Amino acid sequence: MAACGLDFGTSNTTLGRVAGGRPELLPLEGHHRTVPSAIFFAPGREPVIGRAAMEAYVEGVPGRLMRSLKSVLGTGLIEETTPLGRERLRFRDVIARYLAAVKARAESAADTEFDTVVHGRPVHFVDGDPEGDRRAEETLREIAASVGFRQVSFQYEPIAAALDYEQGVSQEEIALIADIGGGTSDFSIVRLSPERHARAERAEDILANDGVRIGGTDFDRMLSLGTVMPLMGLGSPMRRGDLAVPNAYFHDLATWSSINRLYNPKTLREIDETRRDAARPELIDRLYGVVEAERGHGLALAVEGAKIAASDTGAAEIDLTFVERGLTASVDRASLDAQTGTLASRIAERVGRCLAQAGLGPDRIDALFLTGGSTGLPHVRAGLTACLPRARVVEGDTFGSVGIGLTVEAARRAG
């Protein structure tokens, strides 16, 4: 029996343990220490997770892909069911199957059973809703217990990232930890030092803690709505009156956690009726084709890939030839900023709130520690660094810092 740290993220998951006195993340998919937070259900087969789930979907294997599972925590969707072949599963049961598979892989890699877990959690599962936050944590606690963890506790994800960063700190400093992930953006201001790292109780060193439910999947959604969905009919007129085509379908199709809601005969009938009354039915034909073929996740993957490519190289093409021959959409740094700039600004605003909570000016922050995949978005990074112009920018392990910190905390609590 052993303790572990589990970072169940919107986009990726890690699980770590302490071995030989040092924290390590266990391989969860081949040699990879991270596994995408995705699960694929194929009729008559055991579900597969991670990269294998994504590959099965991309290769056209009949079945249902579910991704961004964490996004439903704290929402009414958690108790809703989704059809998976001949059965219907609640979303909480889907999460349980995913986490059970992660736990089993980690135990196989470590050759031990984990009965104690420190689970990472965002500062806010749900913005402005303390009761929703409480329900989300309790749901995650129940799910963890259902897959075999007998002792379950939680740590804020930015605090966990601070514990990872602190392992390399040589003198006392005040750091702002920015964990910008797939579903949330979380911040902590923490006093760190080699001496403090050895203490079991660190509450007095946490000077501020805040977050907002904005992450990489929200950038995907806004980029999709601004760039791809107009090619499917978003904003196009109906034949009669001043009405535009109903937009609910496009918002669901652009939102990772809502895509599967479209895959039912009723929605197809509604889209078909809309097509008959649309001024540009050829656009609605594209929408109908994507929903009928259940290729919404393929669309989202293409948008996500273009977001990353445009961030890295300045421009990208979204290949939509699986929707219609020759169909593409262009994305460059300027259009990415235009479609998602409001999100980046809202994330940066939280830095000011954290400083006010801590009673500190920007010049008192010695280091800005960045972790999480969405810190790779140039306008997000620029917004954060502009808030703390004198702070030293420190790059964390993009997908591993939180998991390492949770592992440190798990060993400490078990200790």
Average pLDDT for all residues: 94
Shape: globular
CATH class of the largest domain: Alpha Beta
Which structural class do you get from the secondary structure elements? alpha+beta
Protein name: Chaperone protein DnaK
Family: Belongs to the heat shock protein 70 family.
Keywords: ATP-binding, Nucleotide-binding
GO molecular function: ATP binding; ATP-dependent protein folding chaperone
How would you characterize this protein structure?
- A hairpin with a 4-residue loop joins strand 12 and strand 13 (185-192).
- The protein is α+β, with helices and mostly antiparallel strands and 415 residues long.
- The mean pLDDT is 94.
- 42% of the residues lie in helices and 23% in strands.
- It has 13 helices and 18 strands.
- It has helices at residues 50-58, 91-110, 130-146, 157-166, 194-197, 216-228, 248-254, 265-277, 281-292, 296-313, 333-358, 378-387, 401-414; strands at 2-8, 12-19, 22-25, 35-36, 38-41, 48-49, 64-67, 81-84, 87-90, 114-121, 151-156, 173-180, 185-192, 206-212, 315-319, 328-332, 367-371, 392-395.
- Helix 2 packs across helix 3 (130-146), helix 4 (157-166) packs across helix 13 and helix 6 runs antiparallel to helix 11.
- Strands 1, 2, 3, 4, 10 and 11 form a six-stranded mixed β-sheet that branches. Strands 14-13-12-17-18 form a five-stranded mixed β-sheet, sandwiched between helices. Strands 6-5-7 form a three-stranded antiparallel β-sheet, sandwiched between helices.
- The chain folds into two domains: 2-170 and 396-414, Nucleotidyltransferase, domain 5 (2-Layer Sandwich), CATH 3.30.420.40; 217-337, no CATH class.
